[in-house]
């Protein structure tokens, strides 16, 4: 095993985002800041989902609950660091979105951080 293979890139990204959540939004998603209250962020437990009829379980990387600006209501940021290309990734993100919506019945803002090549952040456009 090489040194690069032993580095938990996803775990490092998650730790950085949990520590610097507002700075992450400032840098990569500044348009979202108009809609959020810069108060406490609640990071929810990692959700585990399994596909119907499949034995494979999937874990959502990071789920943050934030408050809408000036309101008593909340929405969720679902953030997935992705260090490599995976088949059916878009389908998996949509599946996560649907399951989270079913469980929490809150607006969801899915975000993917692609770490290779370079770093890019993509926010999905789903609606219910």
Concise account of the structure shown:
The protein is an alpha+beta fold and 128 residues long. Helices cover 30% and strands 27% of the residues. Helix 2 packs across helix 3.
Helix-and-strand structural type: alpha+beta
**Beta-strand proportion:** 25-35%
Helix amount, in percent?
A: 25-40%
Major sheet: arrangement of strands: 1-4-5-6-7
| Count of distinct strands | 7
Query: What is the averaged pLDDT score?
Result: 79
Number of helices: 4
Please report the first level of CATH classification, the CATH class: Alpha Beta
**What about the largest sheet?**
5 strands, mixed
The first-to-last residue Cα distance is 44 Å
What is the H-and-E element order?
HHHEEEEEHEE
Describe the fold and architecture.
The chain has about 130 residues and is an alpha+beta fold. It has one domain (about 5-125): 3-Layer(aba) Sandwich (Trna Endonuclease, Chain: A, domain 1). It contains four helices and seven strands; from the N terminus they run αααβββββαββ. It has helices at about 5, 10-20, 20-30, 90-105; strands spanning about 40-45, 50, 55-60, 60-65, 75-80, 110-115, 120-125. It has a five-stranded mixed sheet with strand order 1-4-5-6-7. Strands 2-3 form a two-stranded antiparallel sheet. α2 packs across α3 (about 20-30). The mean pLDDT is about 80.
